[in-house]
Structures are given as structure tokens and as C-alpha cells.
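Shipment paperwork, digital attachment
Item: protein structure file
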Amino acid sequence: MTPLTKVETALLMEFLEDLSNRMGNQGCNDYAIKDTPEHRRIVKAASSAEAFQEGDIANGKIMTMDGLLVDYLRERLQGRREPAAFSSEPLPKSHRSWT
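Attachment content:
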């Protein structure tokens, strides 16, 4: 498979920016993804370090925000953000619950 052309990449970036704006204007931005080590790394990288907490994980799902993930992926594709790094640090305790 060949990589995207510059024009295709620019169009994809426009779509992702528009998607992020639309998601940000919705009434609810909750988004659940499967709780895996890879997804934890991505959500932690997309969030501020203290924003992703133990209470964000319930019933095998990570609760996050849709626009947050779109912005992270867009910035990764643009080369403006490093990939999510592995961290063995435990998540901060939280009284927050999404259930």
C-alpha cells in the first residue's frame, strides 16, 4: 500500500479537525473504549496526566472523551505529538465514577 499524498493528508486533517469541532459541540462527549494496556497509554497521552484516573475504568471499558482522542490522533498524524509511551505508574486514585 502506498502512503497518502500531501493533498490526501491535508484533506484528512481537515476532516479530523471538523470532526473534533463537531464532537466538542455535542451535548455529551463520553466515549468508551476497551480497557487494554495500549488504549490506557493512548488515553493517558491524550489527557493531561492527572485527568486520566482509576475511576475512568469500569466494566472492562475506559471512559474518555471522543474529541480528545480525535485531537490526539490528528496531532500524531501531523507529527506534532510523540507516540504514547509505556508507563508502569499506577493511575491516580479517583472518587469519580462513570457507572
